[in-house]
């Protein structure tokens, strides 16, 4: 199912059993100068799992995503993805190994069409990007990938629209489609529903729920209702530190979690 | 399949057909003077298109392409007159020199954008101008270099005009293909969001370097044709106003429309010929035109036409 391009020679060719961990973090620290944004975080995410990372503003959630995806190298600690130590690997290598993410802040190509945005998302790791006189039409294989990802993100009808003409909700959907087009094994969503209307939230919820079950998903989300619907397990961070972990139900009842949210995060909803 | 590729390339096919028609008939009833003006328009349209690839697609405004153009002109005139070499070799060397100059510029300018790109390309262009002015033993300094004239077979203005028309139209088809290619799409991606491009795995500096060098090649072809056309080169060929004129042509025609360059070049060269009959203050007129364009027609002639068509289609 995953193309050979997504697998580097160093990746072990073992079958992904449901219980195999896809992602293991060992004592990951990310420091910006004196500020430790992420402090000694360890966690294990199993294949096919749906995991939420929650925590108040500045808890280090996005920074943790950056350490997982290679935007920042961890200051210390280890990131293991599918059995490969990727702690020192660049973001591109991790993408090729099968990681993909969306960004908290929408960052698209506004004057290009949805299709062209998808094509750019696909070409980044292929040599086609240097084709100076070739046709920009996607290959049949690429077109199929683009259609699949747009289908999953419920954007198929908007393929020809310019991104600046999309609603904000549709732009968030496109963010997801662009992350899905590389057929990742692990998808990281940074606040996919932030800033959306209730109706748009329903669409995003549907999309996440309809993702293939063998795709492992980690999402950052403040909205506990959404978290309850979408995930099997929740990790809560506060001030860069691990605070609590458990099923969505137990976490929403957890006293420590309620304290940090009530204390600091009234403004989130 | 054929119908398909016609639909995709329709704007280019229509534009090239119009240029072929409008310019193709000039020698049939035009005087030699009018033919030479038409030739000059074609040459500068090529320069303007090379600038438009960067400005309109990659979102980078270069003020160095006039110098790249002029570097080619210098080499061609030097090789034919001082060295006494063949014009074909001279043209090849001129284009090569321009491409190399563009590669050096590109290496330095590919990491910056916005006003820094503008200023850096401006400064690099000034260096070329300074060399042309001061390296008197080679460049002839302020006096410039006079060429030996076109070879016999190229001397007829009509023949030279048609050769320029053929070269410029062929290259405009190539440039169209370039901006429509996967690489062209990456340039538009860089224009829209460089940070997103990097996170998708693109080395933006590499793409900008390739784009700069390639457009330098096209400017070099224009500069080489200009050497054969003008038979004279001086520091004014590589000075800033050359770049500004090329840029203004691209803007006037419509940034990002590519073929607007023909309209912009025609408008400015016709005006220049008209104005210089009455006053020597052409640079001032050029400056006013620049300001007026930015205020009244920032999208240029073709840009406005394209927008009207698009609005028509939507409603
Ligand atoms: N590149 C950076 N340089 C310096 N400090 C940073 C950087 N990125 C994040 N930080 C700091 O690290 C801390 C954690 O930030 P992070 O963005 O990870 O929080 P978050 O949990 O995603 O918050 P939010 O809910 O607001 O998105 C903050 O104090 C932030 O200011
Ligand atoms: Mg965040």
Automatic annotation (TrEMBL), chain A:
Transmembrane segments: none annotated. InterPro entries: AAA+_ATPase, ABC_AA/LPS_Transport, ABC_transporter-like_ATP-bd, BCA_ABC_TP_C, P-loop_NTPase. One of its GO terms (molecular function) is L-valine transmembrane transporter activity. Keywords: ATP-binding, Nucleotide-binding, Transport. The keyword Methyltransferase does not apply. It comes from the Bacteria. This is Branched-chain amino acid transport system ATP-binding protein. It comes from Aquamicrobium aerolatum DSM 21857.
UniProtKB/TrEMBL annotation, chain B:
This is Branched-chain amino acid transport system permease protein. Keywords: Cell membrane, Membrane, Transmembrane, Transmembrane helix. One of its GO terms (cellular component) is plasma membrane. The keyword Cell membrane applies. The keyword Membrane applies. It is a multi-pass membrane protein. Pfam families: BPD_transp_2. The chain crosses the membrane at residues 12-29, 35-55, 62-82, 88-108, 115-135, 159-179, 200-227, 247-271, 283-305. It comes from Aquamicrobium aerolatum DSM 21857. InterPro entries: ABC_transp_permease, LivM-like. It is found in: Cell membrane. One of its GO terms (molecular function) is branched-chain amino acid transmembrane transporter activity.
């Amino acid at each position: 199912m995953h193309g050979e391009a997504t697998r580097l020679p160093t990746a072990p060719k073992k079958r992904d059993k449901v219980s195999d961990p896809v992602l293991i973090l060992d004592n990951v620290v990310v420091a910006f100068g004196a500020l430790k944004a992420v402090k000694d975080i360890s966690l294990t995410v199993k294949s096919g799992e749906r995991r939420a990372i929650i925590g108040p503003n500045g808890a280090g959630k996005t920074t943790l995503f950056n350490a997982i995806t290679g935007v920042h190298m961890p200051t210390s600690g280890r990131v293991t993805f599918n059995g490969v130590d990727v702690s020192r690997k660049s973001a591109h290598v991790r993408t090729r190994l099968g990681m993909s993410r969306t960004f908290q802040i929408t960052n698209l190509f506004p004057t290009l069409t949805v299709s062209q945005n998808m094509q750019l998302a696909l070409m980044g790791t292929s040599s086609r990007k240097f084709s100076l006189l070739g046709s920009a039409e996607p290959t049949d294989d690429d077109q199929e990938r683009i259609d699949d990802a747009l289908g999953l993100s419920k954007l198929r009808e908007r393929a020809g629209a310019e991104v600046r003409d999309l609603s904000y909700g549709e732009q968030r959907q496109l963010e997801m489609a662009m992350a899905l087009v590389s057929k990742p094994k692990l998808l990281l969503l940074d606040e996919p529903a932030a800033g959306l209307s209730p109706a748009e939230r329903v669409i995003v919820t549907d999309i996440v729920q309809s993702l293939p079950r063998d795709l492992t998903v980690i999402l950052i989300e403040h909205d506990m209702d959404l978290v309850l619907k979408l995930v099997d397990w929740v990790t809560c961070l506060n001030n860069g530190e691990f605070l609590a972990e458990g099923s969505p139900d137990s976490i929403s009842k957890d006293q420590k979690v309620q304290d940090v949210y009530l204390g600091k995060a009234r403004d989130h909803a | 399949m054929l119908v398909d590729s016609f639909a995709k390339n329709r704007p280019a096919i229509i534009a090239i057909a119009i240029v072929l028609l409008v310019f193709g008939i000039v020698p049939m009833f035009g005087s030699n003077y009018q033919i030479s003006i038409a030739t000059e328009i074609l040459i500068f349209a090529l320069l303007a298109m090379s600038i438009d690839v960067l400005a309109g697609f990659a979102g980078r405004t270069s003020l160095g392409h006039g110098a790249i153009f002029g570097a080619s002109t210098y080499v061609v005139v030097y090789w034919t007159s001082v060295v006494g070499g063949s014009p074909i070799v001279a043209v090849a060397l001129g284009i090569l020199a321009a491409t190399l100059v563009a590669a050096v510029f590109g290496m330095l300018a590919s990491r910056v954008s916005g006003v820094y790109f503008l200023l850096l390309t401006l400064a690099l262009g000034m260096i070329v101008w300074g060399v042309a002015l001061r390296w008197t033993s080679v460049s002839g300094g302020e006096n410039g270099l006079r060429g030996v004239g076109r070879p016999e077979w190229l001397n007829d203005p009509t023949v030279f005009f048609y050769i320029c028309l053929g070269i410029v139209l062929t290259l405009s088809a190539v440039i169209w293909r370039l901006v429509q290619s996967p690489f062209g799409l990456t340039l538009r991606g860089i224009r829209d969001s460089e940070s997103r491009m990097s996170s998708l795995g693109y080395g933006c500096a590499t793409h900008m370097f390739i784009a700069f060098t390639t457009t330098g090649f096209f400017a070099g072809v224009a500069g080489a044709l200009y050497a054969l056309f003008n038979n004279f080169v001086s520091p004014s060929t590589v000075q800033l106003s050359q770049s500004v004129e090329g840029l203004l042509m691209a803007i006037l025609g419509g940034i990002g429309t590519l073929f607007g360059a023909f309209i912009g070049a025609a408008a400015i060269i016709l005006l220049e010929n008209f104005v210089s009959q009455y006053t020597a203050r052409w640079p001032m007129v050029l400056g006013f035109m620049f300001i007026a364009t930015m205020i009244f027609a920032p999208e240029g002639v073709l840009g406005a036409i394209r927008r009207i068509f698009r609005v028509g289609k939507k409603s």
